[in-house]
Amino acid sequence: NRNEIQNWVDCQSTFDWTKTLKMIATCEGTDWLKIGQMEPDTRAKVSGILHCDCLSDPVIQASDNVYGSIGIVVTIFTLEYCCNTVEEYKGAIKRVVSLIKSGGYLVMGG
């Protein structure tokens, strides 16, 4: 959840992220010996963890210049579970994608 990710960014997490990091490293073709550097490198790239209500418009409370400027949006067990209809799902995806800059990424897990 968002609080746990914030704890991780703040180096306050008690969760052992080793298994997760190994899975990511494997997908990226990164040697597991480099996992120790993956965490600080990733933390340095995180500029914010925001509450997002994908069923609302706007989906986040932020200034207009944020829309279309975010490099990556990650959603885990969210978009696909909060929508009751295909139309709600399409709308949620459209609103969330509006946050992402050209060439950015939407990462969905679920």
Summarize the structure.
It is built from 5 helices and 2 strands, in the order αααβααβ. The protein has 110 residues and is of the alpha+beta class.
- The helix/strand series, from N terminus to C terminus, equals HHHEHHE
Taking Cα atoms only, what radius of gyration do you get, to the nearest Å?
A: 15 Å
Q: Given the C-alpha coordinates, what overall shape results? A: globular
Strand order, biggest sheet? 1-2
Helix content: 40-55%
- Average per-residue pLDDT, rounded, comes to 89
Q: Strand tally, please?
A: 2
Count of DSSP-assigned helices: 5
Q: CA-to-CA gap between the ends?
A: 13 Å
Alpha-beta content class = alpha+beta
Q: Can you summarize the main beta sheet? A: 2 strands, parallel
Strand content: 15-25%
Unreliable residue stretches: none
Quaternary: single chain
Can you give a write-up of this model?
By secondary structure, the chain is of the alpha+beta class. The protein has five helices and two strands. Strands 1-2 form a two-stranded parallel ribbon.
Key traits:
single chain, 110 residues, alpha+beta, two-stranded parallel ribbon, 2 strands, 15% strand, globular
Layout: helices, strands, pairs:
Elements: H1 2-9, H2 18-28, H3 35-45, E1 70-76, H4 79-82, H5 86-97, E2 100-109
Parallel strand pairs: 1-2
